[in-house]
Design goal:
Layout: E1 21-24, E2 29-31, E3 58-63, E4 66-71, H1 72-77, H2 87-100, E5 117-122, H3 137-152, E6 156-158, E7 162-163, H4 168-179, E8 190-191, H5 195-210, E9 214-224, E10 229-231, E11 236-237, E12 240-241, E13 249-258, H6 264-269, H7 278-288, E14 291-301, E15 307-316, E16 327-330, H8 346-356, H9 361-365, E17 373-381, E18 388-394, E19 405-408, H10 414-423, E20 431-433, E21 449-451, E22 455-456, E23 461-462, H11 468-482, E24 485-490, E25 496-497, E26 510-513, E27 519-521, H12 551-554, E28 555-557, E29 564-567, H13 575-578, H14 581-584, H15 597-603, E30 608-611, H16 618-633, E31 645-647, E32 651-652, E33 656-661, E34 667-668, E35 680-684, E36 689-692, E37 695-698, E38 707-709, H17 723-730, H18 732-741, E39 749-750, H19 753-771, H20 793-811, H21 815-829, H22 837-847, H23 852-861, H24 878-881, E40 885-892, E41 895-903, H25 908-917, H26 919-925, E42 930-936, E43 940-945
Parallel strand pairs: 5-6, 5-30, 7-8, 16-18, 30-31, 32-39, 40-43
Antiparallel strand pairs: 1-2, 1-4, 3-4, 9-10, 9-13, 11-12, 13-25, 14-15, 14-17, 14-24, 16-19, 17-18, 20-21, 22-23, 26-27, 26-29, 28-29, 33-34, 33-35, 33-38, 36-37, 40-41, 42-43
Helix pairs in contact: 2-23, 17-18, 18-19, 20-21, 20-22, 22-23
């Protein structure tokens, strides 16, 4: 019986209630025994989740298509909450309409390029089996509003979606996204894991190889012998593997590298052209880390103090402090270290190097950690003064930055100072602050100043008494003239490690010839090179990647020369496919080229790119690098891929309130609590909390201040809010609207269920204003209450002010204030007796980017047969934006007694009438004999009254 139901309904069970009768309109009425419990699926939930118990007395309630019978007690308890409008019918209806009619398909070969374009893109989602929480749709809702808005403004809009993953999580994610009404062009859906896609990822690699931008090098990697695999930095914690806690060492392995450093200056300079947040630009600049300085050479000395044929090159941004260099530090992995260790120090150095190999770069450079090192037993000559200075090895210096060696100036560098004081190394002060009060005696001074103790008759270098900047230039000039160094620009940016020892990833399209070891690029006609099928993807334990197990795939032949060789068993990193996907969306089915030139020229660059701040550095930097290479190759026409980048904020779980209790069990106010370890914490339900100023307190005892805190949503905290539940309870439009109404898009904000109830009520008010109140049986009327008559001037003014505000706020991505403007309009419209169709249609268009389902339904009910997706977005008429109200001063017998607000066209009689009704002015006019009125339109009203003690002369 239940399986034949077509109307979507789900009522969840509760042991305290039983069903009596459920009526589904236009369907048979089913009667159940008093003990029956049913669940009728699927699509939506009633809130709250209830059961109904049959009792002797019952009354009928209806909810837009559903009538249930409640007993008197349950009616009083208010267990049933009405839907504000029938979203459960509207949303599936319009989602199906959009899908069937391909409403949001962007024309491909037949696109009208005479129209302006707007390319709005979300950063790739990374689905997991855990599914969505309400924080995920935040950015997607923002881009959808922009896409819908621009379509209605006449733009060709490209708004696609794809995946950097595969399988069920991605499929479920797509279903979830469709249920929220996002207007993606699903015909352009792509996956970076498909051979048709990664053929072009491999093609890009070949272009990099041709230009010398892809090369192989011995680089240190995180090697875990127990797991038999290379680990990423984030998989190593305190020298052990995150999985299993096994020891991890730094081990050199031959790896593919991409020469991103060749583009460092362009990556830095072109940032200035971009409409990106300054904080994001700053993060990119810091990662690139361009600095100007010098490379200086220190000569190694033997045990007798004689110069050896060993030059230790250091990079420094402060060549002016060279006379303050009292020791050198080499990274544990420095290639010259072995030749600079005294015999009696070999064991100590080797032990230290082995210990350092277990640490990640992040651990080694952490500022707060105690500095450690070992003296090598050898010395080097300071080229500036000829002094012999000790050589140390320390892990706070990285082999991957600069030259892997530094000249340490402890008087003017905090890190060097801490090391020198720990190991009792000489400290030589060479820079005096311009303001002698700015330096702290006995502490390092890292700033600029005037040079002291900085001259040598032996070397001819004298920089005493000049500024740091001038001294730096003089030292560089001296170094270049004497062969002791040169000017150098350096970068923190390192070349990109572009190989992974795992199965899943794009195969690298090269062949290593057996006879010569030469690296041969695979011919482009042989692409894509696909992964072989393997039953065992686990690490080999030898350092060889899992692909090495596919021997028949590895052993191959160069298709051009016929020579035998082997394939590379490494694969590309996860970043590879996501570096260029924005280009493939422009031309997703092209099998002949990465992207058609004309299509790329039309759609590039991406106008708005929205995603999380976690991608602010690496993803954007790698994508920009590849784009610039493709620009040089001639594939793309723009220098940069993303014109504007927006990082949306995070939605936290609901605020939780915590009270503190002392040992006696008494509450303690959080603002006066001391010794927190001795206090217990207790979660307080929302209903027992009230706001007091900027704080939250107990209702029953306002003197007790609570700790209020919202946490990031996570399963472990149990604060995850599932969007499916919200959509079932309030509808997708309510979820979309609330996520935009919570606050500025870029801000972090906590979820609040009462907030979504508020926007749901707002949509209900919009529905009732347009459609009218429900009929007596609870169902919704057909059509609307709109009238076909000309709107009043006041109605037009309210509408156009709303249009102006909503338009401005969408363009500025200030969606929350745009919603506020629409709420204000609806509040005003509820005061009207009649609602002209033209006004309601215009408002529905304003609402549609935010709440597209209900807007489509209202548009249809207002008598329109086509989707409003491409209807013209309303434009504000300046004529109606001007405030027609003016402040008119009112005088009585020439003395100003107050002001009134009047229309600019106000007549004398209208002005006098308003003045007479004004509480403040009426006491000067009521009951008085009016001698005359002087009215200057728009300027003043002066009422001349006869004084009370004056006699009226009759004529």
């Amino acid at each position: 019986m239940l399986t034949n139901l077509q109307s979507p309904l789900q009522i969840l069970t509760n042991p305290s209630f039983n069903f009596h009768k459920v009526h589904i309109f236009d369907k048979p009425t089913f009667n159940f025994p008093s003990t029956s419990v049913i669940s009728i699926k699927p699509a939506f939930l009633l809130r709250p989740r209830i059961n109904l118990r049959h009792r002797k007395s019952s009354i009928k309630r209806r909810l837009c298509g559903i009538r249930v019978e409640l007993n008197d007690d349950e009616e009083k308890k208010g267990l049933m909450v009405r839907r504000a409008y029938p979203f459960h019918e509207i949303e599936p209806k319009w989602q199906k309409y959009w899908e069937v009619n391909k409403t949001f398909r962007t024309p491909d070969d037949d696109v009208d390029t005479s129209k302006p374009k707007y390319y709005v893109l979300d950063m790739f989602p990374y689905p997991s089996g855990a599914g969505l929480h309400v924080g995920h749709p935040l950015g997607y809702t923002a881009t959808d509003i922009l896409a819908r808005f621009k379509r209605m403004q006449g733009f060709n809009v490209l708004h696609p979606m794809g995946w950097d993953a595969f399988g069920l999580p991605a499929e479920q994610y797509a279903i979830d996204l469709k249920s929220l009404g996002f207007s993606y062009d699903w015909d352009r859906e792509i996956s970076t894991t498909e051979p048709e896609y990664y053929k072009w990822t491999q093609w890009i690699f070949l272009q990099l190889l041709k230009r010398g931008l892809a090369y192989q090098a011995e680089v240190p990697v995180n090697w875990c012998p127990a797991l038999g695999t290379v680990l990423a930095n984030e998989e190593v914690i305190d020298g052990v593997s995150e999985r299993g806690g096994h020891p991890v060492i730094r081990k050199p392995m031959r790896q593919w590298m991409l020469r991103i450093t060749a583009y460092a200056d362009r990556l830095l300079e072109d940032l200035e052209e971009l409409d990106w947040p300054e904080s994001l630009k700053e993060m990119q600049k810091n990662w690139i880390g361009r600095s100007e300085g010098a490379e200086l050479e220190f000569t190694g000395l033997d045990v007798k103090g004689q110069e050896r044929d060993i030059k230790i090159v250091v990079y420094t941004t402060r060549p002016d402090t060279i006379f303050g260099a009292t020791y050198l530090v080499l990274a544990p992995e420095h290639p010259l270290l072995e030749s600079l260790v005294a015999v009696d120090q070999v064991k100590h150095v080797e032990e230290y190097v082995e210990l350092a190999s277990r640490k990640s770069d992040l651990e080694r450079t952490e500022l707060q950690k105690e500095k450690t090192g070992v003296f090598t037993g050898c010395y080097a000559k300071n080229p500036a003064n000829g002094a012999a200075i000790p050589i140390w090895v320390a892990d706070y210096v990285l082999g991957s930055y600069g030259t892997g060696a530094i000249m340490a100036v402890p008087a003017h560098d905090t890190r060097d100072y801490e090391f020198a004081t720990k190991y009792d190394i000489l400290i030589n002060w060479v820079v005096k602050p311009h303001d002698e009060n700015s330096g702290k005696p006995g502490k390092p001074f890292p700033g600029d100043g005037v040079l002291i103790n900085s001259s040598s008759s032996e070397t001819g270098l004298d920089i005493n008494g000049i500024s740091s900047k001038a001294a730096a230039s003089k030292v560089i000039q001296w170094a270049e003239e004497t062969g002791n160094g040169k000017r150098k620009v350096n970068y923190k940016l390192r070349d990109w490690l572009f190989a992974r020892q795992r199965y899943w990833g794009e195969p690298i399209p090269v062949i290593f010839l057996d006879d010569t070891g030469e690296t041969i690029p695979l011919p482009e006609s042989e692409l894509p090179l696909t992964l072989p099928e393997l039953d065992d993807f686990t690490p080999t334990g030898t350092g060889d990647p899992p692909l090495s197990k596919a021997t028949s795939w590895v052993q191959t032949m160069d298709p051009l020369s016929g020579k035998h060789g082997r394939r590379d068993t490494n694969t590309m990193p996860q970043w590879a496919g996501s570096c260029w996907y924005y280009l493939r969306f422009m031309d997703p089915r092209n099998s002949k080229e990465l992207v058609n030139k004309e299509k790329e020229k039309y759609w590039s660059p991406v106008d708005v790119y929205v995603g999380g701040a976690e991608h602010a550095v690496l993803h954007l930097l790698y994508a920009r690098f590849w784009h610039k290479v493709l620009y040089d190759v001639g594939v793309v026409s723009t220098k940069e891929p993303f014109k504007c980048v927006i990082n949306q904020g995070i939605i936290l779980g609901e605020v939780q309130y915590t009270a503190l209790r002392n040992i006696k069990g008494d509450f303690v106010s959080a603002d006066s609590a001391t010794g927190l370890s001795e206090l217990s914490q207790e979660l307080i339900p929302d209903e027992k909390v009230m706001k007091a100023g900027d704080s939250f307190v107990l209702k029953e005892n306002p003197a007790i201040r609570l700790i209020a805190r919202a946490h990031k949503m996570s399963k472990s905290r149990g604060n995850v809010v599932n969007p499916d539940d919200i959509v079932a309870e309030y509808g997708a439009d309510s979820l979309r609207l609330y996520e935009m109404f919570m606050g500025p898009l870029r801000d972090v904000k906590p979820w609040n269920t009462s907030g979504i109830e508020g926007v749901h009520r707002f949509l209900g008010r919009v529905w009732r204003l347009t459609v009218g109140l429900p009929l007596a049986d609870g169902s919704c009327r057909g059509g609307t209450v709109a009238v076909d008559e000309e709107p009043t001037l006041e109605q037009l003014r309210l509408l156009h002010k709303c249009i102006d505000k909503v338009t401005e706020e969408i363009e500025g991505t200030r969606f929350n204030t745009g919603i506020s403007a629409m709420m204000e309009f609806i509040n005003a419209a509820y005061k009207w007796d009649r609602h002209p169709r033209s006004i309601l249609e215009a408002f529905v268009k304003l609402l549609s980017p935010y709440a597209p389902h209900v807007a489509e339904e209202l548009w249809f009910r207002l008598g329109n047969s086509n989707s409003l997706a491409y209807e013209a977005f309303p434009t504000a008429d300046p004529l109606y934006l001007k405030d027609s109200k003016i402040v008119l001063p009112v005088q009585v017998n020439g003395k100003t007694r107050g002001t009134i607000q009047v229309e600019e066209t106000c007549s004398e009689d209208e002005a006098f009438s308003l003045a007479s009704m004004d509480e403040k002015l009426s006491k000067y006019i009521d009951g008085k004999t009016i001698k005359k009125k002087i009215f200057v339109p728009g300027k003043i009203l002066n009422v001349i009254v006869v004084p009370q003690n004056a006699k009226v002369v009759k004529t």
